[in-house]
Amino acid sequence: MAIGGDAGKVIGDGAGDDNIILNPEFDNGLDNWSGSGCKIELHDSLDDGKVVPVNGKYFVAATGRTDTWNGVQQDVTSRLQRKLLYEVAATVRLSCAAAAPSLPCDVRTTLAVQTPDGRQQYISVAKCQASDKEWVQLQGKFLLNSNVAKAGIYIEGPPAGVDLLLDSLVVKHAQKATPAPAPDFQNVEYGANVLQNSDLDDGLNGWFGLGSCTLSVHDGAPRVLPFMARESLSPLGDDDDAPPLNGKHIHVTNRAQTWMGPAQIITDKLALYATYQVSAWVRVGATATTPQNINVAVAVDSQWLNGGQVLARDGRWYEIGGSFRVESKPSSRVMLYVQGPDPGVDLMVAGLQVFAVDRKSRVKHLRKLTDKVRKRDVVVKVTASSSAGAAAAGETEVRVRQVSNSFPLGACIMRTNMDNEDYVDFFTKHFNWAVFGNELKWYWTEPQKGQLNYADADDLLKLCDDHNMCVRGHCIFWEVDNAVQQWVKTLSTDDLTAAVTSRINGLLTRYKGRFRHYDVNNEMLHGSFYQDKLGKEIRAEMFRTAGQLDPDALLFVNDYNVESMCDVRATPEAYIEQITGLQQQGAPVGGVGLQGHVSNPVGPVVRSVLDRLAVLGLPLWFTELDVSSANEHVRADDLEVMLREAYAHPAVDGVVLWGFWELFMSRDDAHLVDAEGEVNEAGKRLLQLKKEWLTRAHGHADGNGEFRFRGYHGAYRVDVVTPAGGKVSQEFTVDKDDSPLVLNITV
């Protein structure tokens, strides 16, 4: 039943002072509401009483929708404050004629903002799937970085022809939740295999075949632990601590489905939030004629966790390694199983281990490695200007303070963040490199053919220049199909070639010398749009052209999952093969980008990947590092694992975080600073590590007038104070070198 209403009248808030939405449950008809490109109608019921409101007496229907952006809107300009976190909750439903698109469909909450300088922004707040069967909750959060000239909130999203129903809308200042405490790992037995009868000395006791496959025990498997497990179980490098294997393995036959393999129930063996490393030897039978994907999977209720993957190409034994974590109590069971090869292909598994990782035990080992890789011996040699002063050289006091560490540590930034001075302050204080989230990508700089937009990139570059920041150029092209603009996809081969040439020439000519790195063609292990359209030579041609246009920039490959051992498309070996193939075609590949979107990282797994890639002789960078956990303490531990492993490896030349501020990250529960500027446990851990990696030294020169210390690479200040009270200060830099740095100071 439709009820009339005045869409223009402004009235008081009908749902409490904390809700900035006026007339949120339509108690006053359509006051304060309007349609966005469509009509809106007020109802107390629909469909012969089958659809009724759930919160108030009425709901609104957006009808006559001809596009996805059509929906229900309200102006909230005067009721929003910048730098406050708002939470949004809408109750929505759909109504669909028989001829309309099938349900369910996406429904979105969007905040449309116009800044005082005229820039238009569309902030995606929330998205959910809705249908005509029931009301559902659409929930999300947003933050305004800048003042606004105009702001409106919209409920939109379904295809044309689908009516969108809104029962109520609440937008209010979000209350900060109390962070969860650090998990209690007191009873976790690190290094102990949670699997029963993993050595198979008791036959198949504890094991069962998933599906109709057949399990049997045989000899002939490797008798040494896989490398990654050996590294974790012997963190200080003492292989004598690693027990040998007995050579037995499970042989799986009669596999009718890819998911069939050996399994165990481990529900009661796991501690919440503990990180578990997975390690095994695996092999496939002789009937396999193509490379076979083997995966250690963990089923937690209806969720599937990836415990590691490897591609077995022949009859050899392969190491499989990975990790997983359970962060909420399972409602039913947790099952670990090995799966993957094609039906009919036998699967062999030996020495399968699942054990909790003691991350703290590895820190001592990493500190020793870091000392070798990131420090240098320094000799401060004090010389007196007179013979009288020389006699007192041994009493000269020397105070050394490191001002900054030269290791590149950067972060992803976006144009909208520049208007938040708290964000800018944290960024400029704690990072020395930058990368832009979207503003340099082709779909941003030329969303429609010929409509170029470099203003956002220019603004970000100016910010970085003003603070002496080095910047990575991300990215010239993006090989994955869904990252390519629609207008580019419709081009003919000749027109696409011309567009590619125009893009690379325009970008690198405009910014020649401004970007230290370029990701030339992003994610070539996972996509092939340009290669499919323009041939295999196009990738090397992109590198060659970029090298000619900006010869001082290092040109990178850049991809994800390589560091995690969880993706058979992105193994270190596949990456090496791709890079060497490009080099053979004359591509001047100058660096290897590991994106680093990791979950529950394990140090030896990461180190193993870095070691393999280091054979290329190219600098390795983590280019988009982020870690995600709902528990801030666990997130902090994950971040520390990645930063310590990177800093301790000689082939790693830099780390860039893929953001740090809540709501401006690509992953949930990955931020280091909350939306309103409070540094969380992960952010504090970052700052602690930065402090740890600054050297301070204090003492007196010896009888030869020398003061020795070993310090991290970077910028320093030294103060030399004589017994008579004279003082000489000097700034100096400790660069990477095997020979001691001698600093001569005359007092």
From TrEMBL:
What are the entry keywords? Carbohydrate metabolism, Hydrolase, Polysaccharide degradation, Repeat, Xylan degradation
- InterPro entries reported in the protein's UniProt record: CenC_carb-bd (IPR003305), Galactose-bd-like_sf (IPR008979), GH (IPR017853), GH10 (IPR044846), GH10_dom (IPR001000)
Q: Which SMART domains match?
A: Glyco_10 (SM00633)
PROSITE patterns per UniProt:
GH10_2
Gene Ontology MF, one: endo-1,4-beta-xylanase activity
GO terms under biological process: xylan catabolic process
Domain annotation GH10: ranges: 394-689
Pfam families per the UniProt record, alphabetical: CBM_4_9, Glyco_hydro_10
**Origin superkingdom:** Eukaryota
Q: Which family does it belong to?
A: Belongs to the glycosyl hydrolase 10 (cellulase F) family.
Q: What protein name applies here? A: GH10 domain-containing protein
Query: Which lineage ranks, top first, belong to the organism behind this chain?
Result: Eukaryota, Viridiplantae, Streptophyta, Embryophyta, Tracheophyta
